[in-house]
Amino acid sequence: MAAKEPPVIDFAPFYGPNSPAKENLVKEIRQACEEFGFFQIINHTISSDLQDAILHQSQKLFDLPIEIKESYSKDIGDFNRGYERLRAQNFEKRTAGDLKEGFYIGKNLPLDDPYVVARKFGQGPNKYPEELGTEFQCVTEEYHAALTTLAAGILQILARTLNLDENTFSDFCEHPVAVLRLLHYPPQAPDASSLERGIGAHTDFGAITILLQDSTGGLQVWNNTISTWVDVHPIPGAYVVNLGNMMMRWTNDRYLSNLHRVINKSGKDRFSVPFFFSGNPDYTIRCFPSCETEQGAKYPPITVGEWMMGRYADTYGKGEGGIGELRKEPHVSAVNLKSCGGL
Ligand SMILES: O=C(O)CCC(=O)C(=O)O
Ligand SMILES: [Fe+2]
Question: What ipTM score was computed for the predicted complex, to two decimals?
Answer without folding.
Answer: 0.99
